[in-house]
Design brief:
This protein is α/β, with parallel strands linked by helices. The protein folds into 2 domains: 131 residues, NAD(P)-binding Rossmann-like Domain (Rossmann fold), CATH 3.40.50; 111 residues, 3-Layer(aba) Sandwich (Rossmann fold), CATH 3.40.50. 29% of the residues lie in helices and 21% in strands. The protein contains 8 helices and 12 strands. It has a 6-stranded parallel β-sheet with strand order 3-2-1-4-5-12, sandwiched between helices. A 6-stranded parallel β-sheet has the order 6-11-10-7-8-9. It binds NADP nicotinamide-adenine-dinucleotide phosphate. NADP nicotinamide-adenine-dinucleotide phosphate binds next to strand 2, helix 2 and helix 3.
């Protein structure tokens, strides 16, 4: 059974790895092509956009796929809207694998905001030392509040984005651990951390480190992300795929379940 996984996350890599050892499935993983050197995978990978929902629907039909799994990042909302539309157009089942958001616990000092522009505003008027972990595409929002001193951590360097004047880039790839994050925040005299509420274990260490150091966190809430059948973990996705009859005619009702 041909499966297309929309990826760019650890969950997508985990699912692809599990499915690669299962003879029932023939998997293709799709990446947007944003990261210069993506992690190696044990399944075939294609890269780049499809050209909207219609392009994705065409790709699914032409490729003889029997199911689509959206395992994209919680902040990647456009591709998920396209996945829902393409599943409806083709009648293919759509499973949406999404990790839980982080929850504020005792000792956390979060200010939750709707988007990165609100995060920039939430930093206030007084100059502060800020650690930005919102991804390279979102850094431009902070050029509008140039009074702060910024350190940003990204996988690849930002391109074509206006940056604030006092800006230092650190390039690193998750996972990160709490002791290293705590040492980094202390050494860099960080006063406030800006993070997306991505969820998951790989990048949670900065949140725990900020709690331990009693630092403020500006937390960007998740956008609305359209979904098909919601699947919590990669193993749930495998169980769901196992229930699909690859010979059944495409059924729009299956794809609409849970949307
Ligand atoms: P987005 O705004 O939802 O998508 C923008 C466009 O990029 C889509 O319309 C699609 O182009 C293309 N695209 C996105 N994901 C794709 C995929 N897996 N395969 C093929 N094309 C894809 O997405 P984004 O926020 O820019 O994120 C891009 C990728 O980075 C995603 O795969 C996501 O999982 C990963 N990622 C995002 C974040 C984040 O904070 N946004 C963090 C970590 C990883 P077409 O319309 O032309 O098909």
């Amino acid at each position: 059974m041909r499966i297309l996984i929309l990826g760019g996350t650890r969950e997508a890599r985990t699912l692809a790895t599990l499915l690669s050892g299962d003879a029932r499935f023939d998997v293709l993983l799709s990446l947007a092509g944003r990261t210069a050197n993506p992690a190696a995978l044990p399944v075939p990978v294609r890269s780049g956009g499809f050209g909207g929902a219609d392009g994705l629907a065409r790709f699914l039909k032409d490729g003889g796929f029997a199911a689509l799994i959206d395992a994209t990042h919680p902040f990647a909302a456009n591709i998920s809207a396209n996945a829902v539309a393409a599943a409806q157009e083709t009648g293919l089942p759509l499973g949406s694998l999404q990790r839980e958001p982080w929850r504020e616990i005792e000792g956390d000092r979060w200010t939750t905001v709707a988007d990165v522009h609100a995060a920039a505003d939430a930093l206030g008027t007084e100059p502060r030392r800020v650690f930005l972990t919102v991804g390279r595409q979102e850094l431009g929002a902070f050029a509008t509040v140039p009074q702060h001193s910024y350190i940003a951590r990204t996988i690849d360097p930002p391109q074509g984005v206006a940056l604030p004047p006092d800006f230092t880039l650190v390039q690193a790839r998750p996972p990160f651990d709490v002791s290293a994050e705590t040492a980094f925040l202390s050494e860099q005299r960080i006063a406030v951390l800006v993070s997306k509420n991505s969820g998951g274990d790989e990048t949670y260490a900065k949140i725990a480190a900020a709690r331990a150091l009693e630092l403020s966190v500006v937390m960007v809430a998740r956008p609305h992300k359209p979904a098909g059948v919601r699947l919590a973990r990669p193993v749930d996705a495998i169980a769901w795929l196992g229930e699909i009859d690859p010979h059944a005619p495409p059924s729009p009702t299956i794809s609409r379940r849970g949307v």
